[in-house]
Task: structure prediction
Amino acid sequence: MSLTYSDYLHLDRVLSSQHEQSSPPEHDELLFIIIHQAYELWFKQELHEAALLAKRLDAGDTFGAIGTMRRMLVILKTLVQQTDILETMTPVGFSRFRDRLDTASGFQSYQFREFEFVCGHKDPRRLAMFRDMPEVLARLERRIAEPTLWDHFARCVAARGHAVPAEVLERDVTQPVVECEAMQDLLYDVYRRDKEVVLLVERMVDLDEGFQEFRYRHVKMVERTIGDKPGTGGSSGVEYLRRTLFTPFFPDLWRFRSRL
Ligand code: HEM
Result:
């Protein structure tokens, strides 16, 4: 028998994976589930693209890397836009089933943490909540141990013959990316000499900004839906989320621009 659309996409599994906790099911809960599932699928794709991006940067394939970053950005923009859909749910609509979420929260999205680690926000404290999920823990530990996109970018710039500071090239990749003034000096110089690096830098900044946009839209969505109630994941809610805003993955790429 020839392969069918349903078989290829495993639609039986995909379409039977939405299980409302409310009983009888509250109308808006299906939307809440589907939107989170859609986000997780896109996070999966972003991680897949990030792996290719790392390879392309390592191979010095600047234009390939730029193409991949463009795709990653378009996906991020789509993720940001999807908040519009969930914002059609009123606070009352959400409160009808919120209690049934128990402690479940996007806080526990391990793919989101992976994406943060891949980009440069390494934070081993994030692992604690996954201690009862050995496979997830192993995934996150692997991510902590591997170089970030910032490291791949720095190596790519160095391979083009630019004197990337040793403190950047030899940094401990298990640690968060921090600002480096010598790197900013180099970027200031290279930015006016190497057009391919300029393109790379601008797409990296697009990605960084795109991710921050997601955080901002998420906080506003949360604020209009639950006000200042604490989160189901155990944080203070909006107050915690506000603290995650405006923290770039690639601080040097933002910092050096004031000199241009
Ligand atoms: C009405 C909708 C939503 C509400 C009220 C909400 C609420 C919250 C709250 C209060 C937190 C803080 C952690 C905690 O639970 O204590 C949080 C974190 C988070 N949420 Fe949402 N959320 C919503 C929709 C979404 C959607 C659609 C996604 C997509 C995956 C998402 C992903 C996340 C992520 C990744 C975090 C962790 C952020 C971080 O630690 O930086 N949330 N959410």
Summary: Residues 195-226 form the longest helix (32 residues). Residues 35-36, 39, 86, 94, 105-107, 109, 112, 218, 221-222, 225-226, 231-235, 237, 240-241, 244 surround protoporphyrin IX containing FE (CB under 6 Å). Residues 134 and 140 are 10 Å apart (CA to CA). The chain has a mean pLDDT of 97.
